[in-house]
């Protein structure tokens, strides 16, 4: 397996660092629009793991906005798999470039949505991933696999959903992704500051678009942003966090392959974060449409959202200032295999102190990066295989979760996942 990583930001950097501890691949090409970022990642690997490991990595420049550039770099290095680790706005070109190079493809976020022009808080219009799912026949005809939404959410959450459907329930009422954390970021004086732990560009897209819900008797429909708040209790000391509806890929993916009455996604944002996002929207600073701005060198056009992203700390850089844990998981309700009502929460917790000590990667981006690497290893072994545009829930979840939990000494990743039994409502 020869892997091309597109993007050496926080997640791409973490993907490469995790790959450095695995032996299933032949060559990994770390690329970025700024090749110095790719070279920095490989330098870290060389310092931590030595020349023998680092010599299996090479750095290169790439233009993720150009399918031709992606295809050319992939062909030049003989890439068999293209790992997309850049902003979702680049998904169409990286997706097309991988197919153009006759390589398999993985991403952690899918093509962007467009709200309904007249009824955005009731009806869907262009949904997340629609453009990629529409290309399923083309990828099948080429005999190539596009494994989409293979991060943590979507990704691991979808794996948990497939496991629950196959092994824990005879019928499922709700598949509900629930994400929460107790993370804080501090300044030099120890004061908490506003610094999103993931790309603010992506966060704005997810949180200010109309959230999507799926119900079996209604199909996909939307609600206003931050709707249906609920307090969800997260494990391992994180505790209760208020979660709200957020647009996310799981809701657009799971109903295509898994049988459930309802599919939802709720995210623990917190009152301050919601307030900031609402303010950005009110000031039109969430817009991706360029505006003309005067500068010392004359008028320039710039997208307000790109300005917000440039003004905030790089999520890849805030790890040393971050404290706490993040939890990604799947809350499932329905009828257990014994015929009784059942409610479970399957989850994985990532501790920032550990990820920083082991990888010098903050926990949110590291947890996102872990899952596509596990998927690549299953693909390399032939345990997972296929063609077309597929989500993780297409594949057997058991091998993924086994490999994830097995110790590194026993060939695994040493990442335990949890299963909490909860009391069903009305019991």
Output the keywords.
2 domains; seven-stranded parallel sheet; Dihydrodipicolinate Reductase, domain 2; 427 residues; alpha/beta; Rossmann fold
Regions with little confidence, pLDDT below 50 for 5+ residues = none
The global form is globular
Average pLDDT number: 94
Indicate the proportion of strand residues: 15-25%
Question: C-alpha Rg, in Å?
Answer: 21 Å
| CATH top level label of the largest domain | Alpha Beta
- In total, how many beta strands? 20
As for the CATH topology of the largest domain, it is Dihydrodipicolinate Reductase, domain 2
Question: Can you tell me about this structure?
Answer:
The protein is an alpha/beta fold and 427 residues long. It has 2 domains: 2-151 and 366-402, 3-Layer(aba) Sandwich (Rossmann fold); 156-363 and 417-422, 2-Layer Sandwich (Dihydrodipicolinate Reductase, domain 2). Helix content is 34%, strand content 25%. It has helices spanning 10-19, 35-49, 51-54, 67-76, 91-100, 130-133, 136-142, 156-167, 200-208, 249-257, 271-282, 304-311, 352-359, 363-381, 397-405, and strands at residues 2-6, 27-32, 57-61, 81-84, 104-106, 145-147, 169-181, 184-185, 212-215, 219-222, 230-234, 239-245, 262-267, 291-293, 300-302, 322-323, 325-336, 341-351, 388-390, 418-422. The strands form 4 sheets. Strands 7, 9, 10, 11, 12, 13, 17, 18 and 20 form a 9-stranded mixed beta sheet that branches. Strands 3-2-1-4-5-6-19 form a 7-stranded parallel beta sheet, with helices on both faces. Helix 1 crosses helix 14 and helix 4 (67-76) crosses helix 5 (91-100). The model has no long low-confidence stretch (mean pLDDT 94).
């Amino acid at each position: 397996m020869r892997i091309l990583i597109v993007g050496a930001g926080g997640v791409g950097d973490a993907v490469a660092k995790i790959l450095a501890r695995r032996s299933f691949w032949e060559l990994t090409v770390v690329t970025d629009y700024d090749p110095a970022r790719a070279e920095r990642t490989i330098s870290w690997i060389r310092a931590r793991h030595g020349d023998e490991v680092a010599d299996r990595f090479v750095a290169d420049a790439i233009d993720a906005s150009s399918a031709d550039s992606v295809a050319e770099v992939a062909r030049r290095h003989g890439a068999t798999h293209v790992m997309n680790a850049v902003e979702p706005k680049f998904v169409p070109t990286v997706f097309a470039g991988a197919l153009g190079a006759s390589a398999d493809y993985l991403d952690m976020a899918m093509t962007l949505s467009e709200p309904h022009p007249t009824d955005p808080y009731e009806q869907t219009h262009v949904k997340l991933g629609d453009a990629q799912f529409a290309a399923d026949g083309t990828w099948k005809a080429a005999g190539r696999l596009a494994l989409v939404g293979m991060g943590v959410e979507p990704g691991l959450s979808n794996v948990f959903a497939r496991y629950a459907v196959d092994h824990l329930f005879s019928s499922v009422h709700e598949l509900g992704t629930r994400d929460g954390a107790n993370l804080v970021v501090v300044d030099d004086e120890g004061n908490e500051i506003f610094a999103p732990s993931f790309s603010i560009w992506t966060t704005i897209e997810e949180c200010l678009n109309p959230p999507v819900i799926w119900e079996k008797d209604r199909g996909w429909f939307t609600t206003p942003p931050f709707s249906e708040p609920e307090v969800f209790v997260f494990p391992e000391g994180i505790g209760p966090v208020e979660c709200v509806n957020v647009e996310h890929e799981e809701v657009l993916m799971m109903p295509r392959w898994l049988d459930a009455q309802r599919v939802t996604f709720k995210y623990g944002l917190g009152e301050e974060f919601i307030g900031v996002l609402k303010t950005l929207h009110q000031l039109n600073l969430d817009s991706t449409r360029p505006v003309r701005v005067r500068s010392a060198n004359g008028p320039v056009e710039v997208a307000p959202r790109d300005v917000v992203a440039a003004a905030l700390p790089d999520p890849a850089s805030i790890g040393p200032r971050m404290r706490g844990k993040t939890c990604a998981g799947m809350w499932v309700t329905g009828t257990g295999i014994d015929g009784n009502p059942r409610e479970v929460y399957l989850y994985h917790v990532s501790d920032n102190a550990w990820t920083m000590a082991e990888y010098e990667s903050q926990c949110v981006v590291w947890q996102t990066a872990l899952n596509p690497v596990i998927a690549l290893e299953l693909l390399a072994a032939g345990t997972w295989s296929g063609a077309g545009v597929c989500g993780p829930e297409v594949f057997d979840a058991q091998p993924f979760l086994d490999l994830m939990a097995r110790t590194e000494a026993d060939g695994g990743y040493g990442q335990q996942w949890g299963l909490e039994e909860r009391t069903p409502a009305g019991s």
